[in-house]
Structure formats: C-alpha cells, structure tokens
Amino acid sequence: MHKHRKSRQISKELVVLRYLNARMTLLDQDWKNYFSLAKGFEGEVKFDQLTEKLESECIVINGLLLKVDNSFFQIDTVLIFQNTIYLIDVKNYEGDYEFQSKNLKHIKTDKIIKDPYIQLQRCETMFRQLLQELGFQFNVESHLIYINPEFTMYQAPQNPSVIFPTQINRFMQTLNKVPSKLNSGHEKLADLLISMDVGEYPFAAKPDYDYESLKKGIVDPSGHGFMVAVNDMKLKCCKCRFEETVESAVKRSVEEFKILFPERRVTTTEIYNWCKVVRSRRAITRILKKHFRLCGKGRFSYFV
Residue 156 gets which letter from DSSP? Predict the structure, then answer.
C-alpha cells in the first residue's frame, strides 16, 4: 500500500491573503494572486484525493520546495516507486485555451499563460541533478496534470507527459499497475527530500496593509463572512451559518493575529479589540491563559 509521508501545507502567502481578503478590499494584483493561489491549492488537494486511493506500493510526498545551486523549484506531488520517481505538477485552469508555441492563450479573455510544461521540464532537470548529488539512481518521469473537468485546450500537441481531465482515471490506473516493492533505501530518500524542503519562498510578495485599516471581528474558517454571537458560549457565521464555540474561535483569531502582526504582543486588550464580537474581556483572558503562556506582570503582561 502507498504511504503518505508529508501532508499538503497551505502556503503562508495564501493564508495571509485569505485573512486580508475577508477584512479589506485587496488591490487588483493582490486579488489576482489570491485567486490564483487559492485555485492552485484547490487543484492540488483534488489530486491528493486521487493519490489517497493508490493501491500500489509507493511513497507519496505532497508539496516540496527544493533548492539546487541557489535556484528554487517546486513539485506539487512526488511519487516514489521501486524503480521510478514520478514528479507531478497539477494545474487547475478552467475554460477554453489555445496552445501556442510557448504559451497557452485563454480564448475568451486573450490572457496568456506561460506553458507550464516548460517549467516542469526545468524542475525535472533540477530534480535529476539533486538525485545525482545525493547518490541515488532512479528513472524520473514528470507529468503535468490538468485536473479541472471544465478545462479544454485546442491545438494541443501530442505529449504523453501531459494528462488532460479525460485521461486522469486512466493515468491513475496505470500508476496502480506499476510493479513496486519498497525498501529502506526508498524510505531514506523520502526522509532526505522532506528534510530538504525549504517550506516557503523567501521572497514572496507581501501585500500592503496595516492594523487600523483592517475590519475587526472573527472571520469564519473558510473566510466567507464574520461571526456573530449566538450566546456567551457560541458564535455563528452570518453568511454560511457555520457554528463554533467562542473558545475555538478566539484561539483561531489569535493565530491569525500573530501571523498578520508578528510584531504586536498578544494581550487581553489587543485580542478583545481584534475579536470585537466577544462581549466579555474575562472570557478572553481565560481562553488566553488556557492556550498560551503568560509573560510579565500586571498591565505589561502578554501571552506567547
């Protein structure tokens, strides 16, 4: 059976944009970036659901950002079989595109996207180099998967490495038929790759925002809308009707506050003002004391 060795992490960049989108109007470029990251992540998660069902013996690593000779490259999914490693890049594009020599053109909007297959080939070259440096010998195959059933590409060249929505089931069946027996060498390689994961691009663009201009309150976990109080113990989302305990919501809001404002101290007053919807300051203090460590004394105390 397959083994999942690394779960998919949502990037900090996407987390920040999701938080900000609920609390302010994003600039056009930030909104486009948010939409594209969210769409991409949704596609990757969809593919994860397919690899969950793999019955062949392989190791699945979800999401790696690696570095070779000062260059970064990202792989959505790595599948380690006995003799072959598959590198998978998942695209969640939607709509009708036309293939041009190095680009894809959206037929309705004329928007141009660089052909992701070119990027994938670069990743494959760098991955082979990395394997060589680590002293491993494997066949490496890379595949670009267009996962969205609403995607069509006209004039697409025949390329067995590119998998269209109608071919995904067959591709997964092919993977299931790969004869494979894993040993400790495969485990060692998987551990090495995971230990080399950089996590986040060090130079991701940061949107511009400040504390004063953000709308205060508790946003529901999916970012749909703000929570309102049902009673002293319970909140619900005014848009999607999601319900949550005050304790869980405050704890979430503290994590959000820490990510958006790492330079500000977590105090009862800060969190009371940030959450806005919780009527009792004492409830906030109680929740903070339960889940975080108190530092300092009196009005200079804060939580970590």
Answer: P
